Task: inverse folding
């Protein structure tokens, strides 16, 4: 019996098991679900044991980590799977068509909180491993599962856990299925993510809100100062104007530019779906290049003075804004943060007081396209989904992926089985049955393909 | 008996009457005080009748207007007094040292809501007229009192009332005591006010807040667009950069510049009291010139995106700000508003949608320094306060003063008996007994001085 035949035969049982996994309201953000979190972790640990792995629960400062492993052959490559068993809060409940924790299948979709993010996706790997183990009696690679319970609350405990357990987590490659396919008909491997780093800017003027009639024209209005500064964060060509911002940014390669051009992408449909009069960005780059392979700087919020109905004739005491920068590989979050701070200090008028709060960040990551790992992932998807995947990037950030790189020295394969339409973080989250099944087959195939890499 | 002797003799009775006037909680902003407003207006009308004027209450769409007059000699000049019997809400009550509507004298100050704004000040004119009438049996000028009940709610009904009663209100000069002396030892005549005009700016981007990771770099962030626009509202020399903004602005005259330099003004104390690192404004002008004789533009509030604790990685759907411009004489509010709109439309990126809401405004006003009215006011203050007044301006606006100019064609003498320290609009509002007494004497003297103008 092949693993694929095993998967076919056990499809019903497997769906029942996934439903059980989905029924735990493992909402990490809410303390009232602490016991549900523990129950879910215990069930998952038992399940991993039942399929033949050694598994245990590791307590952390927050919700526990589930860890499991199977050592087949010390000379074979070791694969570290990362996923999470916690889910987003389901609210607003009134917008759900069915109970978020009572999974149902409607029109080929499994509806449940955590369906695609990330229980359904990580479970496909568990089932792929099970299929190979049951069919072959062993695995072609060594596997380790690291399934955390705090992904939806910024993975607060995980970096420390990884640092403390470097030896236990040692591997050759990380596999994560927590992204999406390119579209409902185009599976994909995501080989790059942008990093992110945040800062807050506070500009202070007079020690109280003052009358704009009495003082207007005599002191610098903090809103004017802040706006003038924000206005100088980009130049006329849409480039970030912070000196040295691009110093470590490598040009978009010819190969990548060619790949991106091949992707089905309807610029006009994209513009319409956003409702903007025109797209805009860094001169000389396409929309896909701008969001996947070029860094960006965005003010996420700005506030100052009177914002209610009508008017209030004041010069406010202060104005502030929140900034995030999206980084491409080789850009260092701290370095970029410092450059922003230096620039803002330089351009701030001397007639206001400037305070900058720098937050931590994560660098961008990319899996080398010339390495063997992506090829292996591509071949596995071909087996699982019946077609070659696209190789894509993602403008957003998964900070834990850079922790794997910096702490464990490992690249990560991002193989998304879900869809953007799967409503992760929204009501009526769903995961297509066909994608779950194709995902399980891909997961099984991946074990064999990864085994070839070191061979 | 002279009017001044009369005032001296009746000081006790006069203070009792002022206390009665101050006891009405005539809070125009709150509907629960509607009856108090009517009671206060009735009391004031009766009082004006009692001192020998014809008086009546005029209903309006809102709180009634109290009108009184005395015709002495049709050939004599006619003086129109403007004031208001309504007061600001007294809240927060816990910060008052005594009941805001139970006047008390502590250390030479009358503490009560409305003490200085404006019951105490307008009552000084009522008492000045009474003193002259009692002492001389008639008045050297004709007088008209227009005392409204909606000044603290933007004089909503008054412009219409003035337009409807142009003939009744016809006069040669308006007298208003609703400003302040320059300091506690320096009485003043205010001969100019800045006008004001307001606008709101809304910049829209994507049709919803979008993820700054996925979209950052591909669309124009409405906050960036708005900030860049606000950043272009002033040039490097602190001038307003709206084309044509200064086209009707006359230069500060040599005479005025000289007068302002003579005023006791401590730049460093001013800076310290505001807590700013440095003063700043239009190059080539002093602080007093910047606030009294030059126009200004201020953003009173700005808002957009996420403003709570922590961060949220979005590009917001929109950003907006509220703007007011302070105008000097000859600048037309509508014209300036249109220029701002034209400029903003020109500099807005084509990748966002811009909406501008223009509000009404009032032009700046100035009483000609070469006319006889200011001289007359100066001489009256010399009689009342024992020293020559300073001639000053004010950066704020009293829109009704421009209505007197535009509807009735009349200049206004702004003779403030109060002090900036009198806490108008704040808890523990007060009016110095000595300023009330000097005000009454000034009011009496003013009748004789104004009578000389047409003589």
Result:
């Amino acid at each position: 019996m092949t693993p694929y035949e095993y998967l076919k035969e056990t499809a019903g049982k497997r769906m029942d098991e996934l439903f059980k996994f989905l029924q735990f309201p493992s909402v990490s953000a809410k303390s009232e679900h602490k016991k549900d979190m523990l129950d879910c972790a215990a069930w998952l640990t038992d399940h991993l044991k039942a399929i033949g792995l050694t598994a245990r629960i590791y307590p952390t400062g927050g919700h526990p980590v589930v860890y499991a492993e199977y050592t087949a052959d010390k000379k074979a490559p070791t694969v570290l799977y990362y996923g999470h068993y916690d889910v987003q809060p389901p609210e607003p409940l009134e917008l759900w068509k069915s109970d978020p924790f009572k999974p149902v299948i409607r029109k080929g979709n499994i509806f449940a909180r955590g369906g695609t993010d990330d229980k359904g996706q990580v479970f496909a790997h568990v089932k792929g491993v099970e299929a190979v183990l049951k069919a072959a009696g062993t695995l072609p690679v060594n596997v380790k599962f690291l399934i955390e319970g705090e992904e939806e609350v910024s993975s607060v405990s995980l970096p420390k856990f990884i640092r403390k357990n470097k030896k236990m987590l040692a591997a050759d490659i990380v596999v994560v299925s927590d992204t999406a396919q390119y579209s409902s008909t185009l599976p994909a491997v995501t080989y790059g993510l942008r990093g992110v780093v945040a800062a807050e800017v506070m500009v202070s003027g007079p020690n109280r809100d003052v009358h704009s009639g009495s003082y207007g024209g005599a002191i610098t209005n903090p809103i004017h100062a802040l706006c003038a500064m924000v206005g100088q964060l980009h130049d006329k060509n849409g480039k970030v104007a912070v000196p040295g911002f691009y110093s470590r940014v490598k040009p978009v390669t010819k190969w990548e530019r060619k790949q991106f051009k091949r992707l089905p992408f309807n610029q006009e449909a994209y513009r319409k779906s956003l409702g903007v009069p025109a797209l805009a960005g860094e001169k000389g780059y396409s929309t896909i290049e701008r969001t996947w392979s070029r860094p960006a700087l965005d003010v996420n919020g700005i506030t100052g003075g009177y914002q209610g109905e009508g008017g209030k004739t004041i010069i406010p005491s202060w104005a502030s804004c929140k900034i995030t920068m999206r980084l491409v590989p080789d850009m260092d979050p701290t370095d970029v943060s410092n450059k922003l701070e230096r620039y803002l200090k330089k351009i701030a008028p001397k007639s206001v007081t400037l305070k900058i709060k720098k937050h931590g960040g994560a660098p961008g990551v990319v899996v080398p396209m010339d390495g063997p790992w992506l090829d292996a992932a591509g071949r596995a998807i071909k087996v699982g989904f019946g077609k070659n995947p696209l190789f894509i990037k993602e403008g957003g950030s998964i900070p834990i992926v850079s922790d794997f790189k910096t702490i464990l020295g490992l690249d990560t394969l991002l193989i998304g089985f879900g869809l953007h339409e799967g409503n992760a973080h929204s009501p009526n989250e769903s995961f297509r049955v066909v994608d779950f099944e194709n995902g399980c087959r891909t997961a099984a195939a991946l074990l064999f393909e990864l085994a070839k890499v070191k061979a």
Chain B is about 35% helix and 20% strand. Chain B touches chain A through 76 residues (CB under 8 Å). Chain B has two domains: 3-193+364-453, 195-249+295-360. Chain B has a mean pLDDT of 95.
